[in-house]
Structures are given as C-alpha cells and as structure tokens.
Specification:
Radius of gyration of chain B: 19 Å
Number of strands of chain B: 0
Largest sheet of chain B: none
Number of domains of chain A: 2
CATH architecture of the largest domain in chain B: Orthogonal Bundle
Number of domains of chain B: 2
Strand order of the largest sheet of chain A: 3-4-5-6
Distance between the termini of chain A: 59 Å
Number of helices of chain A: 5
Distance between the termini of chain B: 26 Å
Shape of chain A: rod-shaped
CATH superfamily of the largest domain in chain B: RNA polymerase sigma factor, region 2, helix turn helix motif
Radius of gyration of chain A: 27 Å
Strand content of chain A: 15-25%
CATH class of the largest domain in chain B: Mainly Alpha
Largest sheet of chain A: 4 strands, antiparallel
Oligomer: heterodimer
Helix content of chain A: 40-55%
Strand content of chain B: under 5%
Largest interface: A-B, 69 and 79 residues
Shape of chain B: globular
Structural class of chain A: alpha+beta
CATH topology of the largest domain in chain B: Rna Polymerase Sigma Factor, Chain: A
Order of helices and strands of chain A: HHHHHEEEEEE
Number of helices of chain B: 10
C-alpha cells in the first residue's frame, strides 16, 4: 500500500488529471496526444491509469448492484417515520384546506387565491400553486387491489380525470420509472 | 451532437416547467418521468443507502410539485431539483442517525451480492462490492456526489457542474481527488486485480 501511494506521487498532477479526463471520456484530442506520450515514457502513469480503470469498474459495478436491489420493491408503499415527518407539515397544514375544494384543485384554479412567487420583474403568477397534498388512506380512494410490483405514495393531489370524475393524483413507481397516476375508488 | 441533444432536452424541460407553473399536472408528470432516474441516483449519492431511496425520492417529487412555482429561473431547474434532492436526502440521513438505525456501517449490514452459480466467486464478488461501497460512502460528500453521478449517470463534467452549481474545473478536481482517495482505500483490492468487472 505504501509503495502504491508513493507511486501515485511519482505521477505529475497534470498527467493524473489527463488520465481522469481520459477515463471520463472528457479528454480533447490535444490532451489525448499529450497523455499518450506520457504513458509511453512513464511506467508510473501506466500503473495509475490501470488502477483508476479498475477503481472505476469496481465502483460502478458495486453502485449499480446496490441500486438494482432497491428498484422495484414489491408491495404497496409503506411510509416510514422519516417520510411521514417530511410530509407531516404539509398534511397538517393543508388537509383541511384541501378538502374545502376537493373536486377541483387543478380544474378550478380561480377558486384559489392567486399566488405570486419569486420577486420583482421575474415573478411568476400561478393561480394553482401550490398543489395541496392529502392522505387518501382514510378517504374512499384507497385501492382495492394493490399491484405487486409498484410502490405508491400514500398522499396525493385531489383533482378530476378526463371523465370529470373525482380522483387523487399520486406518485407511483415501478422498476422503470416514477409517474403520476390518477386513482379512484374502483382502482 | 451530444451538446445539441442536451440543449434540446433542456429547452423541453423549460417548456414543461412553465406549464407546471401554470398548474398543468401533465407537465409535472412529464418532468418526473424525464428526471426521475438521475434524481434517484443523486439521492443515492448523498444518502448512500439504497433502502432509503424510494422514500426520499417521493419526498423530493412531492416538494418539487409543491414548490415549482418558486422556481424563478427555469434554466436553473437541474440545480434547483438537485438541491431539493440533496436536502431531502440529508434530512433522511439525519433522521436515521437520530434513530440509531446505523449502529454499524450500513454497507456491511445491508449489502447482498447478486446471486452467482459459483458460491466462492459470489462471496469474493460480494466482498469486493462491499469494500467498494464502503470506500465510496467513506468519501467526503463533496467528492462522493460527483463521483456517483459520473459513474451511475455517465454525466459529462459540464452536466455535473450544472446540477451541483459548481465550476467545471471544480468538478474535475473533485473527481480526481475522489479517485485518489478511493485508490488509497482500495489499494489491496486494486493490487489483487479487483473484480475485473466492466
């Protein structure tokens, strides 16, 4: 290990930087020519390139394997304490307000006070902002059949679907992506 | 070519942001679909625990949906969203720490290697992965975040710089230092040839 570290310092910082650019696919033609010249002359630079290449491969492999295990967790979403905590303030402050205009959060923005955000000339006037999230578990929107391979949020934004039916828009995740879906009592 | 594609994607995101700020739910949905993968990886880069990602990412998107009206400059969308992701991930990590769930290095406790037919090879790979993850998550956050984004997302320096709101030179320097630190931490593994995985 000591010998390895010593070798690291045998390589000029400029060459080390070029090696990293090369491995990251960010090297220019001119820099690549310079790097190749250094690699021809310097065994330490070659060792450094090879060790960084291995590090990249091992780390990328480990990261992907670790992440892959977390994708597509089966069963309905369970909110743990931290997420309840994160959403708690939203729910506590907003649920009562949300229920007062439950059917038309998105379709009747005029019912809500227009909110101006930002500042000065670049401010944004947004009549339907912010959306109000509600916990739908105690409402009539809880899915009767839960799919196995998706993770669903337990809070969502009330609104109307294309058929003008009351729905709750929630985040749903499967193995490929997260999306917003409408749910209603018969889903 | 790559630059042109990136610019087009950025313009499309900005159109969607404007629509989302008008309250169009479909625009939020599209933004989620377009950005979800890198947000997950960004959360992972910060929190370092795959088991927490779903919870944190849902929090990120909930906050993004609520707060997108506050985004005054849509050209900074990626940095804004990254900040939301980072803050949510940090909150989650602190919450876990307070709950003393991390009683031991989490990688050792939670890591399970992919199954292989040869048990001895599977064990060796599991140990290499465990050590690599331990080394990555032992990096200071300023080095870990660009390193993970680079290796999971294959992002250019410029794109990482945009998300982290850093100069490109700083991103490059941090990636160099990340590799240097990892090389020290994994010296034995590297000397023995690593996994040879690509």
């Amino acid at each position: 290990m000591t010998r390895d570290e010593d070798n690291l310092f045998d390589v000029a910082p400029r060459v080390e930087r070029l090696i990293c650019r090369y491995l990251d696919g960010q090297i220019s033609d001119e820099d690549e020519t310079e790097l190749l010249g250094n690699l021809d002359r310097d065994a330490g630079a070659r060792r450094l390139l090879e060790s960084y290449r291995r590090i990249d491969a091992d780390c990328a492999s480990a990261l992907r394997a670790d992440l892959a295990r977390a994708v597509g967790t089966p069963g309905p979403r369970r909110r743990n304490g931290l997420l309840v905590g994160a959403a708690g303030a939203v729910l506590t402050a907003a649920a009562v307000v949300a229920l007062s205009f439950l059917p038309s959060i998105w379709t009747s923005p005029s019912r809500r006070a227009a909110g101006t955000v930002g500042g000065g000339a670049s401010s944004v006037t947004n009549p339907s902002w912010p959306p109000v999230f509600v916990d739908y578990r105690d409402m009539d929107y809880a899915p009767r059949e839960r799919q196995r391979d998706v993770v669903r949020d337990l809070i969502g934004v009330p609104g109307k679907n294309e058929k003008n039916e009351d729905v709750i828009y929630i985040f749903e995740r499967n193995a490929q992506s997260t999306r917003i879906i409408p749910i209603s009592g018969d889903i | 070519m790559e630059v042109a594609v990136a610019c087009k994607a950025k313009d499309e995101d900005q159109d969607l942001i404007a629509a989302a700020q008008r309250g169009e739910r479909g625009a939020i949905d599209a933004l989620v679909r377009r950005n979800d993968r890198w947000v997950r990886n960004a959360v992972y880069a910060v929190v370092g625990n795959a088991q927490l990602i779903d919870d944190v990412v849902q929090t990120v998107w909930t906050r993004a949906w609520q707060q997108i009206g506050t985004l005054v400059d849509p050209s900074r969308w990626r940095g804004w969203l990254y900040a939301l992701a980072r803050n949510a991930a940090i909150d989650a990590g602190q919450k876990i720490a307070r709950q003393r769930i991390r009683q031991a290095p989490y990688v050792k406790d939670q890591y399970q290697a992919p199954e292989e037919s040869d048990p001895s090879r599977s064990l060796a790979r599991a140990e290499q992965h465990r050590r690599a993850l331990s080394a990555i998550h032992g990096l200071p956050a300023i080095y870990r975040e660009p390193f993970v984004l680079r290796h999971l997302e294959d992002w250019s320096y410029a794109r990482i710089a945009e998300a982290l709101e850093l100069p490109i030179d700083t991103v490059e320097t941090r990636l160099v230092r990340a590799r240097r630190l990892l090389r020290s931490a994994l010296a034995d593994q590297i000397e023995n040839g690593g996994t040879g995985s690509r």
